[in-house]
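User: I'm curious what two different proteins look like when written out as structure tokens. Can you demonstrate?

Assistant: Sure. I'll show them one after the other, since each token string lines up with its own sequence. Here's the first protein:
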Amino acid sequence: MERTTPKVDTKNMTVRVSTALVFGVFFFSLLWLGDRPWAPWTYLALMALATVMGVRELTLMARVRGFNPSLAAGSLVGCGILAHFFLATGSHDPLPLWLVFAAGALVIHFGALFFDPKLEEALPSQAITWLGALYLGFGLGFQQKLFMLQGTLPKTGSRLILALFIITWFGDTAAYFVGSYFGRRKLAPKVSPKKSWEGAFGNLGGNLLGAFLMQATVCPEWSLVDVVSLGLLLGIAGQLGDLVESTWKRSAGVKDSCVGVSIPGHGGILDRVDSLVFAAPVLYAYVHFVHGFN
């Protein structure tokens, strides 16, 4: 096959890197102070903000297709799920999920009877409202749960969150450059024409590199099996998350999830958390079942 010319947008890359550095300094500062009493509350506020922004973007994408999901209801239920993860510690669960779901059903379904002017689209609209709440609530809720974990090393939760970010971001970066320079075979042309099998394998290589870096720096308790397993598991989960969000954008006919307000060089909040939303539950499941963290 004929080799394609690399397509790397250097101008956008400069903006992208600059924005990433600003956010990186903020997040890494928070992780460094992860053992302070106020740190979990600060992280909760960040996750709540990301939940509302993500539900907003999914709501706007759905409205492009004529549906009318509720931003308010989706945000409330999503933040309720997030609050469950924040409050649940061991056997203590003051806000059980069944209560969040029961209250969410009242808010989403009965609220629509009074406030939804397009009840003819009630089925898809309410389904999308639930989708936004569950997708952001669970995906970011597991990040909150990881942040609050305590182990034998100080700031265990901060270490795990840093590992989650680095492994995922190394994979995303490697996929971009490998796919741009060597991508020939389309991975999912109906979903994302720019993604290639070469980029996917480059992604996994970046994930493994990030996992080895985390073992050498912040997670010294990881064995070689942990490094390889987490690199591959988070890499696969992250790429699935990216493809899932790409199908939503494709169905709505939009290029970025932001639909108006964007993060410079990065698109919308869903474009930034799509991989993390799938990878965070995988990381939590691994450290829970393999290492016994609760």
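Here's a second, unrelated protein for contrast:
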Amino acid sequence: MRTAMRALGCAALALAAVGCATQGGVRVEGKASEAERPVTTTVSGQPVTVDAVALLRGDAKVGEKIKLMLTTCENGRYPVDTRYVDVTGDGAAEVVVNVADCRGVAYAGYGYNRAGYVYELRPGQPPAQIFGIEESGVLVQPDPGSGVVLVRSRYRAGDRSCCPSGEETTVYAWTGTGFAKAGR
């Protein structure tokens, strides 16, 4: 009995350690038809969620190349990563959306990222884009309460698209009306 309990305890510990690991790049949350949208609350306590694919498709500021990428991949998933984080420091969550091509979903490499956006979410109002970049090899990472960090892949001659030699980061801080470069 004791041996069985120890084995069960060890298995649970191992499963917990493995289950908490995360990978960089695009995080996929399930099949497009099954994915549950994360829920967050604003200062007013109203739940806020967005359909990131519909949001990007309906945004006139999003380029046509990016919109054409918003289809399900072979595995039935969209190549988008959506995170709800307060990046402006106002106490309300914004949505940070990164878009990759379908290879990025399969391989989770920064080199496959194609665009990143931040949208302000206000109850009763449509989401408003407050930051956006469309460039191969970029990733917009939230920096809660203060802004975002833009990660750009840097390639040397001979690098494959999946595997840049390095990266460059730029910090953007919220000024109250927009994001401004705050450093590297």
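A detail about the second structure: Residues 25-183 form one domain.
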